Automatic annotation (TrEMBL), chains A, B:
Coiled coil: none annotated. Keywords: DNA-binding, Transcription, Transcription regulation. It comes from the Bacteria. This is TetR/AcrR family transcriptional regulator. PANTHER family: HTH-TYPE TRANSCRIPTIONAL REGULATOR RUTR, NALC. One of its GO terms (molecular function) is DNA-binding transcription factor activity. It comes from Altericroceibacterium spongiae. Gene3D superfamilies: Homeodomain-like, Tetracycline Repressor, domain 2. Residues 18-78 form the HTH tetR-type domain. Pfam families: TetR_C_7, TetR_N.
Length: 211, 211
DNA sequence: AGAAGATCGTACTGGAGAGTACGATGACCA
DNA sequence: TGGTCATCGTACTCTCCAGTACGATCTTCT
């Protein structure tokens, strides 16, 4: 009976610590995205937190630490890609998928995260790779599995499904995403997104639909 | 005879100043790309220059100033796109263009510049836009003019040439460039580039070649 | 030659921000 | 109830770096 907390596995203390940690990370995310790594100050985070610097450092032993934690937690915004399933019309299925994809990519959070990762990839060398594996790679796997399935069903020509998946994704990014990365302000109305998606899918199917 | 320099328009003094300025900018570019804006120190630049800080500040009154100058000068690495001209085979013409494009985009300088611009777009708001106008926009204009021409010659379907141009460019960027932005190391051998380019052009022409 | 200007080196100021020290207060646990 | 642990606030140190001051030297123009 050295530690009754361990038994319950839910000391009030530990719970509060978890909560606080989460609060810190949330505030840190906000600061990092708004000002980048260099522009963010620990003091400001502490102030925003309402707590003291001492507390902050008791959770994270350095700014880098906190940044890593913020990013790690953050990758969850790439929620599992909606399941793609053939629904009677391949074109419509793909268009709908592309719309979802575009909508997600054009989210301010995703945009900001891209910016941040790219900016700090030098300072945190593994960052790019982790990020790549979490986001685009997962997507590519999911989409290419779907495409393979469609090939097997005879609705698409047999081809390199991984390559096709990348191509479709990149076609989606065309224009809108690059603009938003460069601080321009593209039209992101649902109608415009739909238009982009249809355009992309048409080009794609022209190339890969079964004869 | 108030100033004989003005007449010759080539005082040794002025010439040297130009030279020095260029030297500073060159060194600054190197530092900014290697360490980003935040990671670059004026002192280090001065040291690398061999001169003193005083001199440095006599040319550029602040770090921001120097950064702007460095970038301004730098945009020239986007050398005028090779003229695209139909040469008897549309597919081959486009493949060759795409190879050139990819080779340019995968240059370390271009990659670094992208990184820098994206990273500092918040600090220097006009940066993104200037950059966009200098690089991708010029390209798009050139390529879409060519595509329009090809439509008029009947080798391509009539369509929105600007959109087509963006699509072709973005298809090229697929995989290779994104990888290099994320710090992965894609295969950039000529053979691989050629393969990518052919693949892209085939998809493109499937969609847009005249029937 | 002599004035004007550019460069140099070095030492300084001033500000910002990461991280620490420490004593006090309160929350939780046994 | 008494001990442990988290938190708090404040004030501090340390380091880094942009930008300045200044007197000495070297170059170029007239």
């Amino acid at each position: 009976m050295t530690n009754s907390c361990a038994e319950k596995n839910l000391c009030k203390r530990d719970a509060k610590k978890e909560e606080k940690r989460a609060a810190i990370v949330a505030i840190a995310q906000q600061h990092f995205t708004e000002h980048g790594f260099g522009g963010t100050t620990m003091s400001a985070i502490a102030a925003d937190l309402g707590g003291s610097k001492t507390t902050l450092w008791s959770y994270f032993s350095s700014k880098e630490d906190l940044f890593a934690a913020a990013l790690d937690d953050w990758i969850d915004i790439f929620e599992p890609v909606r399941n793609i399933r053939y629904e009677g019309d391949l074109r419509e299925t793909l268009v709908s998928y592309c719309c979802d994809f575009l909508n997600q990519m054009l989210t301010p959070q995703v945009e900001t995260m891209f910016r941040l990762v790219i900016a700090e990839a030098k300072r945190f060398p593994e960052l790019g790779q982790i990020f790549y594996e979490q986001a685009p790679l997962r997507r590519h796997k999911a989409l290419s599995a779907f495409l393979q399935q469609e090939m097997d069903s005879g609705r698409l020509r047999q081809y390199d499904s991984v390559r096709m998946s990348s191509q479709l994704h990149h076609l989606c990014l065309y224009r809108l995403f690059m603009h938003s990365i460069w601080g321009l302000e593209p039209d992101t109305s649902p109608a415009q997104i739909r238009l982009e998606a249809e355009n992309v899918v048409d080009l794609f199917l022209n190339g890969y639909a079964a004869a």
